[in-house]
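A protein record pairs a chain with a discrete description of its three-dimensional fold. The following entry can be read in just this way:
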Amino acid sequence: MLILSFIFSELMGLIKEGIIMLGKKSFVLLSTLGLAVSSMTSYADKASTSSHSFEITTPEVRHVVEYSVALIGLKPAATNLNYVIYNKELPVQSPTWIEKEIDTQMTAAFELGIKYHFSAGRYVSLDWTHLNSSSDNAISAPNASYFLGPDYEIGPDGIEIRHAVGSAQFKYDVINLNAGQALDFGQHVETRFFMGLSNGYLREQVNATYSGVTIITTPGHFGPFSTKQKVTANFTGIGPRFGFDASYLTDRGFVFFGEAAASALIGSNYSKTAYISSSQELLDLYGQTVNYQTIKDQHVTQVIPGFDGKLGVSYEHLFSHDVLLTLSAGYQAAVYINAISQYIPASLVSNEPMQTGGIFVDTMSHTLSNYSVQGPFLKAILHC
């Protein structure tokens, strides 16, 4: 037992120093302590030799290379997915407002990985997770007691907005390069501590389209109108990642495992909000059928904290002395803090609603949103 021998040597060194410092009067007490530690070490050696129940070792390298592929059902999420406010204006003294969110759907994603094992439990691994997801929702005002609108036009000017459509698209690509050390605690517990680099490409686009027919807001310009808001946010970063995973091996071949990691991605954050509008007033006054406007942010460098983890169960089947197949299933999640930035109007200029065929900003709002993915996975690992 290397660790216990090391502890014993250190304690004996302290005992010798104590003898010199404290003198002969303490010799009996310190000698007794040395004998007690020696007895405990001898007992631990005998116990580990006989049962190996708590022996800390590095795993034997039986398969040098691992290839893995995983099918994941990932559901993306963010905190900026509200696309319209559903307003019930009656009774006049008690109007109500309901924020409508885009309900993102679980989408098929995948993970590819490779791991190479060295001696003494050391290894390097590389994996890539990819997701491309799209979801949409729609709502209409059922009668004159209800109307719709974005956060910046939900007063009386919103009465003419009768329909709203929202959609969200997420693109998620994360590459992890890790170097780790594996340790076994007895015959049933395996642990791995790792650190390395993580590279994240996080994309989100949230669209909202509002439409209706002008009646009172644009006198003399009766007709249909439509405004589409397209908010695009991108973050690309790279930074350190570290974590650990642990497994418990049962006697029946099943393995229960968990993994947790944290990262700090340093990179560029960029956001852009585009508006595409059309209305009868725009056509009558300017001869335009479509009006294009944008709100742009500069590229901003920042650090984004990230956390990811997974829990699951696996089963191993040995086909031959050289080939081992592991099948695992479980649940995984990842979140990146304040990775999404967006700029949208907080309020519009008085008497200039979107029915005019344009967005005329009075005050601006800047919001930050977390970016997360979660869902079940099914993974196959081929050990060669």
In short: Helices lie at 2-22, 27-51, 280-286.
